[in-house]
Structures are given as C-alpha cells and as structure tokens.
C-alpha cells in the first residue's frame, strides 16, 4: 500500500521554514517553563524570574508567528507592551488558525487511495 502525501505538507513545510525564529523561540520558552516549574516546585525563588522570561518568550513567539518580520527585540522586556501587542492580534489570528485547522481536518478525512 503506497501512501500519498497530504497536500498540506508543502504548506506546512513552507510555514516552518518561514517561521523558523518563532518556532525556535517557542522551543526555548517551553524549556524555560519546564525549568521554572521545577525550581518553583522546589521553593526556589529563581523560578519566578525564569517563569517571567518564559512568558515573555511565548508571547514574542506568538507575535513572530503572526509576522515573521516583526522586530520583537524593540519591545524589550516590557510584558505590558508585549501583552498589548498580543491583544491587538488575538482576534485576527484566531480566525486564521481556525481556517487552517479546518483545512487540515478536511485533508485527514479524505480516504487514501488503495
């Protein structure tokens, strides 16, 4: 039985190539979150600092996913500024995510040829 590649694969490949900096930042944010959680579970104060850094990286990654050319370094480490930028994007971005999810679900429902 030969499997056919999903037609969404080239689009996904292009997305990850275009959003390389965002995916890298999100990966580091996930690692920081895990480390912060470990520190906080062991009552170490440094977990608060690392947790704040993880939140900052997650939010900047979100902004970069929306616009890979965005200069997130200009936002510095100001969580209020970053949160305001995220709030402005959230309604527009959620519509795009739903459309992409629908397209992938449709692809997966199509039976494979035998």
Q: Share of helix among residues?
A: over 70%
Distance between the ends: 6 Å
Low-confidence stretches: none
Mean pLDDT: 79
Helix/strand-derived category reads mainly alpha
Largest sheet report: none
> How many strand elements?
0
Molecular shape? globular
Give the strand content: under 5%
Give the total of domains: 1
Rg, rounded, reads 18 Å
Compressed to H and E, one letter per element, the order equals HHHH
Helical stretch count?
Answer: 4
What does this structure look like?
- With 114 residues, the protein is mostly helical.
- The chain has 4 helices and no strands.
Protein traits:
mainly alpha, single chain, 74% helix
Give a short synopsis of this structure.
The chain is mainly α and 114 residues long. It is built from four helices and no strands. The chain is globular, with a radius of gyration of 18 Å.
Layout of strands and helices, then pairs:
Layout lengths: L8 H10 L1 H22 L4 H21 L12 H31 L5
Helix pairs in contact: 2-3, 3-4
């Amino acid at each position: 039985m030969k499997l056919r590649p999903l037609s969404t694969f080239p689009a996904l490949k292009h997305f990850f190539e275009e959003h390389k900096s965002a995916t890298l930042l999100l990966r580091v944010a996930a690692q920081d979150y895990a480390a912060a959680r470990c520190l906080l579970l062991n009552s170490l104060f440094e977990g608060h600092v690392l947790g704040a850094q993880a939140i900052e990286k997650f939010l900047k990654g979100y902004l970069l996913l929306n616009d890979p050319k965005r200069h997130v370094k200009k936002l510095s480490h100001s969580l209020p500024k970053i949160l305001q930028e995220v709030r402005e994007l959230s309604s527009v971005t959620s519509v795009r995510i739903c459309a992409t999810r629908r397209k992938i679900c449709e692809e997966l429902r199509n039976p494979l040829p035998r």
